[in-house]
Amino acid sequence: MRHELWGPEIHNHRISDQASPLVSFILKYDLIIWNDKDSEPTFETVNEKSWIDITLSSANLANKKMNWQVIKNNFSDHNYLVFNVVSFNATRDPPRIFFNHRQILKICKAVHQKFLELQEEIQTIDSKQKLEKWIEELTNTSNQISQSFPRKVIKHLRVPWWDSELEVNRKKTRALRSRYQRSRREEERSMRRIVYKKQEAHYKWLIKQKCRASFELFCQQLIANNAFDLSYKIAAGKIRKQTVLQSVKTSNRQFTNNIKETIQTIVQALFPTDDSTQETHV
């Protein structure tokens, strides 16, 4: 499939829209194209050459790309696509950032104002480069105003006993609660409240069951090798708690502020400095 996104523009070629589904797929999932438009053709025969082989990845992996190139292959019409990837530790996707209604309205007003400023330039756009520049200015305005907002990241608690069953029940509970709160008629509201409360009770019961089962499995793993290990010591109260030093009052009737001052004050009280002038001579 030929397209200007991953290959040079070919004039006098038959009109074809075969690459449109792939382009839509790339845009939908925010994929990055690694291909270099100025590279050697990825497909080459005696009669023709083309750029139809594509390398795609996520934006996170694309930042680690190094030395993407096309190497001739004498045993096939398709050439080799060779690249290097910088070693890195796999990380989770960055957390999603949510905007409230006021922030979204502020972004819309800023983009609308910028659009009015650039509106006259639309008539002068006669090339792909000018169009991309015009879109980039509009996009930069949106990004600048959105980055000025304080970030409120929604983080979810990660526990080992959480599974798909709990996830489904949580969504169901929230949906029933939303339906109950949106109800206006008294009869419908009472009925939906009963349904919501039953689901909420079942959801809470599931959480307790999963949590307890996970803890029991943890205990079984602890005593698998030694029954008198950590679990036995905890049950028998044989775990020594770490000593916590509190603030003490100094000779100046002030309390210490850190552990170092506390230790020095205690040592000074137990082992005072010897004063030779107060010694009794025999």
UniProtKB/TrEMBL annotation:
Domain of life: Eukaryota
Residue ranges of every copy of the Endonuclease/exonuclease/phosphatase domain listed in the record: 1-81
Name listed for the protein in its UniProt record: Endonuclease/exonuclease/phosphatase domain-containing protein
InterPro entries (UniProt xref): Endo/exonu/phosph_ase_sf, Endo/exonuclease/phosphatase
Gene3D superfamilies in alphabetical order: Endonuclease/exonuclease/phosphatase
Transmembrane segments: none
MF GO annotations: catalytic activity
